[in-house]
Amino acid sequence: DQQVKQNSPSLSVQEGRISILNCDYTNSMFDYFLWYKKYPAEGPTFLISISSIKDKNEDGRFTVFLNKSAKHLSLHIVPSQPGDSAVYFCAASVGGDDKIIFGKGTRLHILP
Amino acid sequence: EAGVTQFPSHSVIEKGQTVTLRCDPISGHDNLYWYRRVMGKEIKFLLHFVKESKQDESGMPNNRFLAERTGGTYSTLKVQPAELEDSGVYFCASSQFTGANSPLHFGNGTRLTVT
User: Fold this and answer.
1) Nearest-CA neighbor of B46 among B88, B11, B87, B90?
2) In the CATH scheme, what architecture does the domain B5-114 have?
3) What pLDDT band is residue B93 in, cutting at 50, 70 and 90?
């Protein structure tokens, strides 16, 4: 049973516009959430994270929003750039547990 | 600093054969993890070493998989005998500390194809 769900396998966004990637989770014990970005033939790289005590964390063009009541988080990329084309994985963990649970990923295409 | 390196990058073997994957973590990282991604699915946790000790191996699929980290440096993951469903990309990751404030650094993975 998937605990971290990314229901959109792919997303296409015009360059310069906002990209919004969504993620839902089922385990209410999760208290730390992460986004990883993956290019083809490479491993995932850490992008941004958020603790459950916050509802927003921002780092440059990337912002993660957390809605605990809805068990939902989203990653906003503004403005979207060609280099943002990649697969984005949502991930979560419990109490600093090192077993990070990943979603299936969403492939983001930035269109010129 | 050098990143996490994995060898080989690709491996094609027949069902019933043995394959050994190797991971060299970032120097100084005591924590080493193995993950696996079967095509189109989520990246699944296999196990976690702290130095040479297995901290958590709850994700290992079955006893055909054996992971070692002798000396607490590099790690190997052996699959013996390999089955068709073992095909996928095996990622190794390392971190300096445990817990939420120490994101994982992943290698580029080993793509294993069992025919």
Assistant:
1) B90
2) Sandwich (2.60)
3) very high
Which whole number is the average pLDDT over B107-114? 97
Q: DSSP character for A70?
A: T
Cα–Cα dist B62/B65, whole Å? 6
Q: Which residues of chain B are within 8 Å of residue A46 when distances are taken between CB atoms?
A: 103-105
Residue A97 confidence class, pLDDT cut points 50, 70, 90: low
Class in CATH terms, A4-111 = mainly beta
- Predicted confidence at residue B1, as pLDDT, reads 66
- Tokens at A98, concatenated: 């090192």
Q: Quick one: how far is CA B96 from the chain centroid?
A: 17
Those residues of chain A whose CB sits closer than 8 Å to some CB in chain B are 2, 4, 31-32, 34, 36, 41-46, 49, 51, 89, 93, 96, 98-105
A84 min Cα distance to partner chain B (Å) = 18
Q: Tell me the domain boundaries of chain B.
A: 5-114
pLDDT, tens digit, 9 for 90 and up, residues A50-66: 999 999 999 999 999 99
Which of chain A's residues have a Cβ under 8 Å away from the Cβ of B33? 98
pLDDT at A34: 94
Place of tokens 């189109």: B40
Query: Structural domain boundaries of chain A?
Result: 4-111
